[in-house]
């Protein structure tokens, strides 16, 4: 789950992670009020969307105009720019061409930037530890830095048995070329950020840029936090920060049914149990010349209700011209799955070719149920045959 920059900064503040002063605004009038309260002489009006690259982004209706992060020098300009941004669609390199409508703004005090650095923390699957990444190349996307100047990324991995120690933070501070009081400011900052990360069960915290100010303070100018969904049950306060308007409606619907769904651009919908098998299914669809419309893992305990919800989700995508169901009955029995598929197919009018490949426990019974249903379900004995059949069936139906 993602949250907005202003929400992340409010959380940071409670952990003692230094951030500029600011306030959220939903209307130009509120923006003006926040600006007055903050006092000048410089304010920054920042679009709040769940995507980065806002500063360099452009509004759809004003492609030659200013970006989604604007530095201004009067309260009037705060109001004017707020009016020009709220309700308008911002396109950044992370939003895709469709962009995102800006519905909230963060009005922040202007900061006297001396240096722009990068600080990130994430769960590193390779080491099973939290890895801290830092770079002197703040403002740039870390993926680009990794590509062009991998030597400019400093990585420190934290042993969960000891947690973070001051020397870890000092190593980063010195690696970033900080000196004097900047070092102790950075150490305090990094220790506090790590505490927020572990306390809140974050998956990623990215501060880009982390800035050194003219007076030697070290503060977060941007804040992106992603939480581990599996831990949200113990953070009701974070769950309440969810902004559903920023989430994909299909993915939100899927998560209500415990389905792991990611929409893609192709025409062949797939329903699979297990993430690995789902990946393999997408690969083999491509191998036979098709394009998957989605990734969908129905999980190990797929019930009739879940299979029905999955069909509805797949068919809500108007690009879908065929569906491939690929189930390995390990813990689940194939006959139960077949009954679920038949019941769901009766419930939801599936107007496109449907190929079902079953394998595993009670597979013969499962196939029998599909045959006896009288529904136009194409059966397949293996993954290659299933992919070939659905790709051909879609071509023929065109
Ligand atoms: P994004 O990464 O989405 O473009 P940022 O919050 O990083 O958004 O802002 C983009 C740039 O705007 C920053 O790199 C920084 O140069 C500038 N900026 C952001 N907030 C402030 C601020 N409070 N004061 C001065 N400059 C800012
Ligand atoms: Mg940024």
UniProtKB/TrEMBL annotation:
Protein name, entry field: Succinate--CoA ligase [ADP-forming] subunit beta
PROSITE patterns: ATP_GRASP, SUCCINYL_COA_LIG_3
Keywords assigned: ATP-binding, Ligase, Magnesium, Metal-binding, Nucleotide-binding, Tricarboxylic acid cycle
Family label: Belongs to the succinate/malate CoA ligase beta subunit family.
Residue span, ATP-grasp domain: 9-236
GO molecular function annotations of the record: ATP binding; magnesium ion binding; succinate-CoA ligase (ADP-forming) activity; succinate-CoA ligase (GDP-forming) activity
Cofactor binding note from Swiss-Prot or TrEMBL: Binds 1 Mg(2+) ion per subunit.
Binding positions for Mg(2+) per the UniProt entry: 208, 222
Pathway: Carbohydrate metabolism; tricarboxylic acid cycle; succinate from succinyl-CoA (ligase route): step 1/1
UniProt-listed InterPro entries: ATP-grasp, ATP-grasp_succ-CoA_synth-type, ATP_grasp_subdomain_1, Succ-CoA_synthase_bsu_CS, SUCC_ACL_C, Succ_CoA_ligase-like_bsu, Succinyl-CoA_synth-like
Its biological purpose: Succinyl-CoA synthetase functions in the citric acid cycle (TCA), coupling the hydrolysis of succinyl-CoA to the synthesis of either ATP or GTP and thus represents the only step of substrate-level phosphorylation in the TCA. The beta subunit provides nucleotide specificity of the enzyme and binds the substrate succinate, while the binding sites for coenzyme A and phosphate are found in the alpha subunit.
Catalysed reactions listed for this entry: GTP + succinate + CoA = succinyl-CoA + GDP + phosphate; succinate + ATP + CoA = succinyl-CoA + ADP + phosphate
EC number per UniProt: 6.2.1.5
Binding site residues for ATP: 46, 53-55, 108, 111, 116
Subunit composition and interactions: Heterotetramer of two alpha and two beta subunits.
One BP term from GO: tricarboxylic acid cycle
Gene Ontology cellular component annotations, sorted alphabetically: cytosol; succinate-CoA ligase complex
Entries under Pfam families matching the protein: ATP-grasp_2 (PF08442), Ligase_CoA (PF00549)
Swiss-Prot/TrEMBL cofactor(s): Mg(2+)
Amino-acid positions noted as binding substrate in the UniProt annotation, renumbered to this chain: 273, 330-332
């Amino acid at each position: 789950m993602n949250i907005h920059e202003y929400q992340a900064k409010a959380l940071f503040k409670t952990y003692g992670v230094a951030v500029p002063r600011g306030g959220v605004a939903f209307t130009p009038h509120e923006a003006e009020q926040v600006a007055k309260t903050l006092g000048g002489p410089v304010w920054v009006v920042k679009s709040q969307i769940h995507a980065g690259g806002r500063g360099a982004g452009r509004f759809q209706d004003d492609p030659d105009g200013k970006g989604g992060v604007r530095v201004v020098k009067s309260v009037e300009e705060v109001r004017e720019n707020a009016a020009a941004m709220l309700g308008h669609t911002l396109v950044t390199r992370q939003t895709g061409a469709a962009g995102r409508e800006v519905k909230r703004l963060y009005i922040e005090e202007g900061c006297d930037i001396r240096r722009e650095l990068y600080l990130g923390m994430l769960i590193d699957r390779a080491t099973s530890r939290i890895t801290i990444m830092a770079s002197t190349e703040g403002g740039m996307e870390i993926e680009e830095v990794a590509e062009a100047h991998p030597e400019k990324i400093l990585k420190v991995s934290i042993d969960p048995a000891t947690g973070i120690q001051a020397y870890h933070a000092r190593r980063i501070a010195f690696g970033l070329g900080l000196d004097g009081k900047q070092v102790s400011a950075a150490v305090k900052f990094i220790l506090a950020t790590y505490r927020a990360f572990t306390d809140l069960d974050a998956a990623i915290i990215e501060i880009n840029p982390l800035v050194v100010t003219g007076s030697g303070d070290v503060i977060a100018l941007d804040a992106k936090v992603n939480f581990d969904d599996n831990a949200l049950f113990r953070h009701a306060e974070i769950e309440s920060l969810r902004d559903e308007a920023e989430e994909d409606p299909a993915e939100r619907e899927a998560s209500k049914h415990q389905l792991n769904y990611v929409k893609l651009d192709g025409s062949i919908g797939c329903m699979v149990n297990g993430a690995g098998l789902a990946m393999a299914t997408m690969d083999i669809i491509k191998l036979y010349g098709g394009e998957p419309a989605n990734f969908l893992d129905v999980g190990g305990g797929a019930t009739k209700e879940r299979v029905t919800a999955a069909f509805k989700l797949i068919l809500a995508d108007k690009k879908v011209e065929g569906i491939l169901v690929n189930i390995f009955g390990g813990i689940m029995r194939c006959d139960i799955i077949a009954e679920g598929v038949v019941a769901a197919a009766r419930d939801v009018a599936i107007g496109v070719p449907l190929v079902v490949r079953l394998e595993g426990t009670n597979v013969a019974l499962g196939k029998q149920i599909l045959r006896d249903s009288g529904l136009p379900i194409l059966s397949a004995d293996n993954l290659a045959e299933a992919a070939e059949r659905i790709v051909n069936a879609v071509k023929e139906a065109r």
